[in-house]
Amino acid sequence: MTARPLEILRLAAGGDGVGRLEDGRMVFVPRTAPGDLMTPAMLRTHRRFARARLGELLQPGPDRVEPRCPHYTRDSCGGCQLQHLSLPAQLEARRGFVGDALRRLARFDVADPVIEPAPEAFDYRTRITLAVASGGRRIGLHPLERPDDVFDLRWCHITVPSLMRLWQLVSAQRRLLPKGLEQLVFRLDRQGGRHLVAST
Question: Which CATH class name applies to 6-59?
């Protein structure tokens, strides 16, 4: 049975696109944008809602962009949730997430807050934790919704370049890393010093 086209109406907290099935149930689809017309690949259906993944994108929404990071699409990196949206759309989405949480969870009668954009959209993160798998053959991040898996990281575009250059030096010599390693933490201090912590 072929899935009927689905329009993404809005974003839920956390970044999943939200559409409505013919029977009225909401369906949550990661990595989709408001206005996307797509065919969903159903994953799980429940009495009141369903979860799906993007099957085929028939028509992109007006705020959909090509993600800067190749890991976002190729490896379904779980570190970023909104790179497929334009920067103004990301800000508007985050504004809505915060306002919705204040109204629904805290019961405040407030409008969505004003959000000041960060000076840099990329290259700002001063700490990154990499998971180690397969005895060090794979060192990187977890794919979206697959926390037990690890893909091999080449470069993280939200992390400061000096830490990524250090990661590339370490990656080239990974055979020298200690056995039983579980994670590597790269951190930049306030003076610009780079630190690496290896955890077993």
Answer: mainly beta
Closest CA to 183 of 167, 198, 168: 198
* C-alpha distances out from residue 134 to 142, 143, 164, Å: 14, 16, 22
Give the separation between CA 17 and CA 166, rounded to whole angstroms. Answer: 36
- Of 167, 180, 171, which is closest to residue 135 (Cα–Cα)? 180
Confirm whether pTM is higher than 0.85.
yes
pLDDT tens per residue, range 37-71? 999 998 899 999 999 999 999 999 999 999 999 99
List every span in the chain annotated with CATH 2.40.50.140. Answer: 6-59
Contact 33, 61 (CB under 8 A): yes
Contact criterion met (CB below 8 Å) for 118 and 91: no
Contact between residue 56 and residue 38 where contact means Cβ atoms under 8 Å apart: yes
Helix (H, G, I), strand (E, B) or coil at 89: helix
Instruction: Supply the DSSP string of 153-165, one letter for each residue.
Output: -S--TTB-HHHHH
